[in-house]
């Protein structure tokens, strides 16, 4: 794989509210620090067969990855 951007995220998929996992090994999903409202927050989706990053709103019951940044 070519990671010319220098950004890596493991293809961890995500956890549904019933504790099952989807897209393991196929996509990465990251929570944003920005809420859409009290029920929804933004997330970023990266699929390994696509060249773009998408943004979606999602209910907070799903389990998406987080990215920690050092100050």
Structure notes:
The protein has a three-stranded antiparallel β-sheet with strand order 3-4-5, with no helix packed on it. Strands 1-2 form a two-stranded antiparallel ribbon. It contains no helices and five strands. It starts with 13 loop residues before the first strand and ends in a 12-residue tail after the last strand. Strand 1 and strand 2 (21-22) form a beta hairpin. With 71 residues, the chain is mostly beta strands. The model has no long low-confidence stretch (mean pLDDT 87).
Ordered list of secondary-structure elements with their pairings:
Blueprint: E1 14-15, E2 21-22, E3 27-35, E4 40-47, E5 53-59
Antiparallel strand pairs: 1-2, 3-4, 4-5
By helix and strand content, what is the structural category? mainly beta
Low-pLDDT sequence parts: none
Helix content: under 10%
Quaternary state of this entry equals single chain
The gross shape turns out to be globular
> Strand-residue fraction?
35-45%
Number of strands: 5
H/E element sequence: EEEEE
Mean pLDDT: 87
- Helical stretch tally: 0
Describe the biggest sheet? 3 strands, antiparallel
Rounded to an integer in angstroms, the radius of gyration calculated over CA atoms is: 13 Å
Which features does this protein show?
mainly beta, 71 residues, single chain, two-stranded antiparallel sheet
The gist of it:
The chain has 71 residues and is mostly beta strands. It is 0% helix and 39% strand.
């Amino acid at each position: 794989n070519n990671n010319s951007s220098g950004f890596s995220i493991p293809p961890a998929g995500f956890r549904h509210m019933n504790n099952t996992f989807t897209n393991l090994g196929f996509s990465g999903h990251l929570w944003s620090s920005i809420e859409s409202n009290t029920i929804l927050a933004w997330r970023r989706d990266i699929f390994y067969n696509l060249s773009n990053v998408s943004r979606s709103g999602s209910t907070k019951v799903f389990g998406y990855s987080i990215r920690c940044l050092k100050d």
